[in-house]
């Protein structure tokens, strides 16, 4: 169901990950994503997978919630894996039929890509699951604050990014309500070919766009009524300060990067 998608939601908690500074979590997430793409073999990828598994356990976010975040990209994972299987001809041949050739290299690469994408989604999801929209906005604004020297509206950009993340669950809930209403009126949204399903989505997208613009107007009006004005004059109830937890995570990431580089050097590519 659409409503089961958890992308962009925040789950309050008191775990080690929740207590990390928002700026540190942004840096850690960005660094971990880079390290995921630096991995060239299963051993180096296992390092970042282990880090992700420990982070999920420590964050106390249930595995069920994490897996729900993959619902939107199941098709993408399958498609990417299939492309690697059928178009990578390195290694020994396992199956050969007509022009289709499946090799060990294709299978290894398909598994490697699938694990990499899943790990990437888990790492990215932990950021929004364990960081409130307000803290995330403040973190983005503080990290991008040097850009103010060249007249970049950092506070506006940070607020836009935070609102976009915050409204993902709201829009998903809106889509689920509209689909339920259409089904109650006899609409068939789950049968037929691609063209028929695409046409059936038109009655969903029109009210979705209308409601989205209405919500955006109401939010802008509410912010204006409360005299919201971002920038240097905006005060914060909670002041951000790096703690020992943040420095420990920075050290762990540095050690992981060194280990990944060494494993890539000694063991090479995945095949």
Largest sheet: 2 strands, antiparallel
- Portion of residues in beta strands equals under 5%
The chain-level mean pLDDT equals 81
- In the predicted model, the low-confidence regions spanning at least 5 consecutive residues are none
Major sheet strand order = 1-2
Write down the secondary-structure element order.
Answer: HHHHEEHHHHHH
C-alpha-based Rg, rounded: 22 Å
Alpha-carbon distance between the two ends: 38 Å
**Strand element count:** 2
Structure description:
- This protein is mainly α and 271 residues long.
- Helix content is 66%, strand content 3%.
- Strands 1-2 form a two-stranded antiparallel ribbon.
- A hairpin with a 2-residue loop joins β1 and β2.
- α4 runs antiparallel to α5.
- The model has no long low-confidence stretch (mean pLDDT 81).
Summed up:
The chain has 271 residues and is mostly helical. The chain is built from 10 helices and 2 strands, in the order ααααββαααααα.
Characteristic terms for this protein:
271 residues; 2 strands; single chain; 10 helices; mainly alpha
SSE map:
Elements: H1 22-38, H2 42-59, H3 63-68, H4 74-87, E1 93-97, E2 100-103, H5 104-129, H6 133-143, H7 154-184, H8 194-200, H9 202-225, H10 244-267
Antiparallel strand pairs: 1-2
Helix pairs in contact: 1-5, 1-6, 1-10, 2-5, 2-10, 4-5, 6-7, 7-9
